[in-house]
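Morning F.,

Quick status update on the modeling queue. The single chain you submitted on Monday has been processed. Sequence for confirmation:
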Amino acid sequence: MNDLITFITVNNHPRVLDVSLATELVVARLSDIRAIINEYKYELEQMGELYMAGETHMRGGRTCRQTHRYFLNEEQALFVGDVAKPKPEECVHTAITKCFDAFRRDQIGTK
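Structure tokens below.
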């Protein structure tokens, strides 16, 4: 799982990129993960700051649309993994926890 996960650090704490998590959870569409985050925003904010970065997409020199990328802490990532309901045979908690642990042991860097 950890080969495709994108981490950043915020205040010396690891966070995972929302679409990176979605790819690992085999969510049907990457935008579905952001819909989950928006739907459960209140609950996620109770687990820590919901760190977000905006992106403006350009097409033909004009602004096409604005989107937000979310970077989730470990508790938020586990919650989103539960809500996303990936394939039952996949152990989401174990995989996410292993990724965060590997990051803490410097086996995974930030991008």
